[in-house]
Amino acid sequence: MDSREFRNAMGRFATGVTVITTNDGAGAHGMTANAFMSISLEPKLITISIDNKANMLNKIKAAGQYAVNFLSDEQQDISMNFAGQKKKEDGVDFDFIQGIPVIKDSLASIVCDVDQEIVVGDHTLFIGRVLDVELTEGNPLTFYCGKYGNYRQKECV
């Protein structure tokens, strides 16, 4: 199988949309990603997967911290901005949790210190030890077969 066929197969897995944020000392930076996973409750650990050619890789390494922000269905423009698809005309507003930039009004923002880096294939996995979370209400922005969508649920318990 070729890389395009594999990529198409992976696109058939519906995901939420996240923006990974960090501050490398030169300012807040973000990158749209769907390669996120919860690993452990005790200790609280999550992981993200970053392409080894992505600019964000060295920014996270320099910062030693990152946040994962779950976007709402009202934040597609923010996802597109950080994916390099369309510049957000009015810029992106950041909040800060423990000094780590987060996307304002995200459904959830999870901030963490980098616990481990593992190079696997053409990506690096950053396992993060969770420091704090912030939650808001709303509906998630989803991604399936290369297209944005949404999912409606009355409430999340």
Automatic annotation (TrEMBL):
Domain Flavin reductase like: start-end pairs: 10-150
Highest rank taxon of the organism: Bacteria
UniProt GO MF annotations: FMN binding; riboflavin reductase (NADPH) activity
SUPFAM superfamilies associated with the record: FMN-binding split barrel
Keyword Acetylation: no
Biological process per Gene Ontology, one example term: pyrimidine nucleobase catabolic process
A Pfam family the protein falls into: Flavin_Reduct
SMART domains: Flavin_Reduct
Name recorded for this polypeptide: Phenol 2-hydroxylase component B
Species the sequence originates in: Oceanobacillus iheyensis (strain DSM 14371 / CIP 107618 / JCM 11309 / KCTC 3954 / HTE831)
Lineage: Bacteria, Bacillati, Bacillota, Bacilli, Bacillales
